[in-house]
Amino acid sequence: MGFVRFALAVIVLISHAGYQEGSIGALASVEAFFILSGTYMCAVWRTRYAGMPSRIFFTSRAMRLWPTYLTIFLFTFLCYLIWGAQLNDNNLFDLFRDIKAHGFTRMNSLMLFISVILFGQDILSLAEPVHFMLPVRQSWSIASELLFYLTVPLIFRGHRFIMLLVGFAALMLCKYLLMTTYGWRYSYFLPVGNLGYFLLGGSLYYVSQLSLVEKLKARLSSWRNPLMLIFILFLFFFGEASFERGGFLHHFIFVFIFAVFVVFLFEKSISRFDAFFGNISYGLYLNHFAVICVATFIGLQSKTILTFSLFFSVMLAFLIERYIQRPIDKKRSAYWQEYAQKVAG
User: Fold this and answer.
1) Where is pLDDT greater, at 342 or 123?
2) Which listed site, 114, 232, 300, 319, has its alpha carbon 20 to 30 Å from 214?
3) What is the pLDDT of residue 81?
4) Can you list the pairs that 172-179 forms with residues at least 24 positions away whose Cβ atoms lie under 8 Å?
5) Over the chain, what is the mean pLDDT?
6) Measured CA angle at 133 (ends 127, 134), to 5 deg
7) pLDDT tens-digit series, residues 87-103
8) Rounded average pLDDT over 329-338
9) Among 292, 281, 293, 270, which Cα is nearest to 318's?
10) Cβ(96)–Cβ(84) under 8 Å?
């Protein structure tokens, strides 16, 4: 599913560049990311980390998320140092500018701390001016992801397919109540609804492992690539599909179709090519807003901005993955294997 994750990151980039029409949109792409994350985390917890202490899992996830994130945080700060005085950055440098103008006040010190540790960014994003103080704007969703990781050892410990679906339904109801009572920001940024998508993703993993589904997947194996292409085209042409802006019925039709594709396309073992695109999707998702700001500053035409941003965001994500994240992932893998050998011995 690495290609799907990459496609979702591209849709977020395209939306932020002003070309959302036709695709599921940035908001729905993030909600789809949460579903996929639930599927993957259920899979790795029940296969790779089964029987291991939770700290091994937490350490592994931290080593996967923070190095890339902190690198992009520093990249954004570098852009501020070089172009900050002239760049129309859509508030991307608000925190850095506030520190320069007022020093380390209580508010911007808190924001700098939250920007580094990630936890809490989703809740702080309820207030738009505070959300604009995040140097890596999209990282609020990683905060929700981290909260979900803390629950993984509990919710995926046993086969609880029905409980996960019930949890998803209950949290979607909470999301609806937040939407209708307080508005879309409460529905979208609060981790309540986001946890519901994670639970749905976990339930999809259990469905994908059913013997009947495995037999159907075996029969469809020769159709896997065409189905993957159809899935990606679906993401680009289904239309705005978020809970907040796409309409509730349209959103749940999207979630149902997305879930069916995930069940039949999810595989524990993936190709190197698929893994490559999946790995750089994280960096692409986080770095593109700063790249779009730089493209705008250069004075490119609107369509050229999109091409420039897509190319350089992918290249930056690749460089970070190749020279920073991959060496850390090797140490992460060695750490896990060493512990697994101790347990086996």
Assistant:
1) 123
2) 232
3) 87
4) 172/196, 172/243, 175/243, 176/248, 179/243, 179/244
5) 90
6) 100
7) 666 678 889 988 988 99
8) 77
9) 281
10) yes
Tokens, residue 181: 């009572």
10 near 310, Cβ under 8 Å? yes
- Compute the average pLDDT of residues 232-247: 94
pLDDT at residue 331 tops 70:
yes
**Which helix (H) or strand (E) covers residue 257, if one does?**
helix 248-265
CA separation, residue 326 to residues 48, 73, 263, 320, 331 (Å): 19, 18, 28, 8, 9
| Burial (Cβ within 10 Å: 0-12, 13-18, ≥19) of residue 110 | middle
Tokens 């991307």 sit at which residue? 92
Which residues, including other chains, have CB under 8 Å from residue 179's CB and lie 6 or more apart? 186, 187, 243, 244
**31-65 confidence digits (pLDDT tens):** 999 999 999 999 999 888 877 888 888 988 999 99
Give the whole-angstrom CA distance, residue 247 versus residue 240: 9
How crowded is residue 117: how many other Cβ atoms within 10 Å of its Cβ?
A: 12
- One-letter amino acid at 302 equals S
Q: Give dist(CA 78, CA 233) in Å, integer.
A: 36
Are the CB atoms for 8 and 281 separated by under 8 Å? yes
- Give Rg (Cα) of the chain: 20
Is the pTM higher than 0.85? Answer: yes
Q: 273, 225 in Cβ contact below 8 A?
A: no
What is the rounded distance in angstroms from the CA atom of residue 279 to the CA atom of residue 6? Answer: 8
In 158-296, the DSSP E strands lie at none
Per-residue confidence at 310, pLDDT binned at 50, 70, 90? Answer: very high
Is residue 201 within 8 A of residue 37, CB to CB? The reply is yes
Name the region of 21 (left: φ>0; alpha: ψ -120 to 50; beta: rest): beta
Token pair in block for residue 239: 């239309």
Number of H helices, E strands in the chain: 17, 0
Q: Which residue's entry shows tokens 């925190």? A: 95
Q: How far apart are CA 223 and CA 218, in angstroms?
A: 10
Split at pLDDT 50, 70, 90, the class of 301 is confident
Q: Which amino acid makes up residue 79?
A: C
Q: For residue 260, give the nearest of 233, 231, 281 by alpha carbon.
A: 231
Q: Using an 8 Å Cβ cutoff, are 336 and 60 in contact?
A: yes
